[in-house]
Design a protein that fits this description.
single chain, about 270 residues, alpha+beta, 4-stranded mixed sheet, 3-stranded antiparallel sheet, 4 helices, about 15% strand
Length: about 270
């Protein structure tokens, strides 16, 4: 696990590189889709955190010119607090998931993911399980090797062009892509890098790797944020090289954004 190369963000706790073993587990080849989440909501009546709070974070580049005034995140002003944004309306009121049923569900919190898991008799993967499955035996930054675009081929959905003003969409997508877009890794998993960040079970700590147990690590026993893995369609080399199998972040369990989803395990 981990990375200490020039690719890594050591402040995120990507190092030290260390070896762990995980117990047998199963993991979904795909992130949970909009259609699967809709089936869960229809069956349970679940109301997401974004719906309860009545807003979520949306990438400013998706807002129309006549959008109402929104608040931005200090230091990351491209993230806008948009009322009415939720999993049904990814870019806010007036948008929908029509035509995107096979895309990953977004604007879901860790709490929402836990509720889905309880309904589907699954669970979130641990951070160690997630990285094992994402690497698929590769010691490189990407499941396919060391190059972001080997031989000029796009292997994942990330931001191209000049972030955040101009996305050339050379990989074919400005926002989310279908969960089966792009070739799978050697274990058969799709989009473990790029597309959407994915919640993991663990509490997040930038210091955890220095004290991680070698057998089936489960993360810190307490914390304030939960682990996200994999990067998203907004990752770009100029500011966020977190579209790699070792990259990690933490977010509050009730938080949601337009580039954050999850996949399930058993």
């Amino acid at each position: 696990m981990g990375d200490e190369s020039a690719w890594a963000y050591l402040g995120d706790g990507e190092g030290p590189v260390h070896e762990v073993s995980v117990n047998p587990f199963a993991i979904d080849p795909y992130a949970v889709t909009n259609v699967a989440f809709a089936q869960f909501v229809d069956a349970t009546g679940h109301v997401t955190d974004a719906e309860r709070y009545e807003w979520s974070f949306v990438f400013g580049g998706f807002l129309p010119d006549d959008a109402p005034e929104t608040r931005g995140v200090v230091g990351a002003e491209w993230w806008r607090q948009l009322y009415g944004a939720n999993w049904r309306h990814p870019e806010g009121p007036g948008s929908s998931i029509e035509g995107r049923l096979d895309h990953p569900v977004v604007h879901v919190s860790w709490n929402d993911a836990q509720a889905y898991c309880a309904w589907s008799d699954t669970r979130l993967p641990t951070e160690a399980e997630w990285e094992y499955a994402a690497r698929a035996g590769s010691p490189s930054p990407f499941p396919w090797g060391d190059e972001l675009e080997p031989n000029g081929e796009h292997r994942m959905n990330v931001f191209q062009g000049e972030f955040p003003r101009h996305n050339t969409c050379l990989d074919g997508y400005a926002a989310t892509a279908p969960v089966d877009a792009f070739p799978p890794n050697a274990f058969g998993l799709h989009n473990v890098t790029g597309n959407v960040w994915e919640w993991c079970e663990d509490w997040y700590s930038p210091n955890y790797y220095s004290q991680s147990p070698r057998q089936d690590p489960r993360g810190p026993t307490t914390g304030t944020t939960r682990v996200e893995r994999g990067g998203s369609y907004l990752c770009h080399a100029s500011y966020c090289r977190r579209y790699r199998v070792s990259a990690r972040l933490g977010a509050e369990p009730e938080s949601s954004t337009g580039n954050l989803g999850f996949r399930v395990a058993r």
